[in-house]
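so my prof wants the structure for this chain in the tokens format not the other one, which i didnt know existed until like an hour ago. anyway here's the sequence
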Amino acid sequence: MSLFTPLTLPNGTRLANRLAKAAMEENLADADHAPSDELIRLYRAWAEGETGLIITGNVMVDRRAMTGPGGVVLESGEYRDRFAQWARAAQSGGAQVWMQINHPGRQMPAALGQPTLAPSEVALDMGRFSKQFSAPRAMLDAEIGEVKARFVETAVLAEQVGFDGVQIHAAHGYLFSQFLSPLTNRRLDGWGGSLENRARILLDVVAAVRARVGPAFAVSVKLNSADFQRGGFSADDARRVVRMLNPLKIDLLELSGGSYEAPAMQGQARDGRTLAREAYFLEFAQDIATAADMPVMVTGGIRRLPVAEQVLRAGVDVVGIGTALALNPALPLEWKAGQASAPVLRPITWTNKVLASLAHMAMVKHQLRRLGRGQVPNPAVSPLRAFLEQQLDTVRKTRRYRRWMQGPQA
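here's what i got, hopefully its the right format
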């Protein structure tokens, strides 16, 4: 079996190969928070690279709850044509295209001016950067019910506009990940306490989505292999959640890791000198995958062909690639042709881990904006330049978001 062997999913649909464009947050929505021309152009570039699966960046289920300004929101059929164009562009190279759907919970920038909801009143601890996020209010039972309904409605809308599936985001410290972690879920009701209770909202949403969409529409989950915080969501917890997901017949489980407080999903591997450490969630995934009845995908730092092949040999079904595809959208075609392409960003030597993580995200978004404008990526961009550029872009889009929220739809 090679990276270019097709994979038939549990629902009977087929991925043309084992390479996936993993989700990256683009913040490239238009003024209506629908897909912009730049976003559609970006996905056409990835389509031309011929990965078997393309997973979109965050699509929010509630305009009041954003991971950042400039995010896409799908909560009605108002901009159906724009979403349909996005799906068609991403599918134009033969890939399956899934919409990642998400709610930030407490990981919502305070500058957006919206109330912040979370499982419990546990604020983010990011040192001097903590003030960038408002302290959350614990969700009422009715609000949990509303969020569940919103995830289901967004999934149904995604199917209606032409996407092939959805990925329900339960990793990286966002809302469902917050429910799963005992550090951020201190509830004493049926949504907290035992892992079964903490996983309940995720399991309810997966089951409800599966019941509402067609059998050929893929339903997947992104789960942390661990959140890398003492006393938090562990690899053993992840294994137990996978066993809970097995009866729900999901089509793919993506394993990643980290959160805003412990951003293992950002930056480079701890030691780039060895192949094993480049695929830095692989060891966790191999262990957790033993509990999985569904195909498993691993994402995290993969940029070289030998590493991608190693991941496949380890028993993982799909290799997720993020940053490397922002730097070279044609990477799958080059690997298929036997080229040893290994795109890499300029190293970040900053000692502050939070700033370094923000700079890394800014450098990636710099590439996404260039691709969206029809330009070639610039892997050598200065971390400082990208960071400052991102700060200015965030300020501008935050103002635009706040004006949008004051409009007729508010």
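also thought this was worth mentioning. The radius of gyration is 19 Å.
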